[in-house]
Give the backbone structure.
Amino acid sequence: MSTIKKLASQTAIYGLSTMVGRLINYLLVPLYTAYLAEVADFGVVGVMFGWASLFSVFFGLGLETAYFHFSQKTGDAPKVFSTAVNFLIISGFIWVIISRWFAPDIMYGIGYPNHPEYALWFTMILAIDAITAIGFAKLRQEKKPWKFAFIKLTNIFINVGANIFFLIIVPKLAENGVGFAVRWYNSVNQVSWIFISNLIASSITLPLLYKSMLQIKLGIDFKLLKRMLKYSYPLIFIGLAGMINETFDRVLLKKLLPELTADYEVSIYNAFYKLSLVLTLFVQAFRFAVEPFFFEQSKKLDAKESYAYVMKYFVYVISFIFVFTVAIIPYLAPLLIRNPDYFLHPNGMKIVPILLAANLFLGVYYTLSVWYKVSGHTKIGAMPAIFGAVLTIILNYLLIPRMGFVGSAIATLLAYSSMVVVGYILSKKYYPIPYNLTLITIIIGIAFVLGFWLNTLSTINYGVWMRIIIPLSFGLFVYLLDKKIIPHVKNKSHQ
């Protein structure tokens, strides 16, 4: 239990920065919906960040996970760190040059040919973020969650502050005739300031990691780099597949829906997708804490039992969060999406429980993925994510023309659940972990039945009380089951 307590404490700290940061960032949603000229403008934001997520994989090259692996394997973390960062600095510089030359062509392909500057801005953001990701990995590997949290929150506050400055303060100053504000203010293309704010925040984050960066030694150990890239290149496909699953639906919505309504539909989908915030916050925080923990445990004799133990408690918590979030969504949604125009779309609220369920499976998949990371089977480990990505693309092409963004939500759920199934089958073959599959299936199944039933209830009288009673009852059931007051479900996963 001490292992779980240690992991829980680190998850809580990472969760603090992630949760507070995401909540602060989410305050940008009402800001954007209020100050951007058209509802469709928020769709432009969704499409551009969707593409950025895809390209981020090619900037990071999976070296974040490779850093954890080779720090443990070689015992020379400083050399691994220096090699990774120096390589990313050089590759990032090359990416910036390429984007500068081909910016018009890139933006023509994305669908915004009048804004080639977007390509250069996002390339700079991604190049810087790839370097800082290794810096953050170093903090995680050294178990410095509080410093990690401080720098992450500083980045977010800078981003939010810049957005407020450019979208609210500058227009007001321009109205009063202040010189620089008059020159800067552009009421037609306020979206550009959102991207510039992200670039400013990323640029300032790098100096905040100066203590780690000062430890970098010049030069690259090419033998070590070759080993790292050999380990990490399958992770590029895993990362790319993951980003296709997470963000490519915005890109496909832009491509497959009628041109006149595409940005509007993406905007609605983007806003309601963010209502899965509560669950994804926990998943992200848990990932930050658990990845170095997995590598640390890998050298112990009872490592597999520890991984199974972690999975069980992860499923307990994430299933409760799913039921609780579905229960409060009718009250949470108007607080987070302040512009009532978004609620005029008939399908906005319908996709929220579907996306919550999808992200629950995504969390299980991340926890399950320990098998290929610690065993080194990264090539085989890429198969579930690639399978999910292919399924995502196929289902989106089939469902979007018929169902709009509801089809994208369904595709996301089916892709993530399939990744869990394929990942579990492969883990049993290559690195069997004694998960209590029966217990996990029962807990998630009950959570889904309760959650989707709650989504059908009204928010008055009987419905209100059930939205309080059901999550509490489910939490009590899980607690009693874990304490074996309710007879425990035997593990049948290896029979």
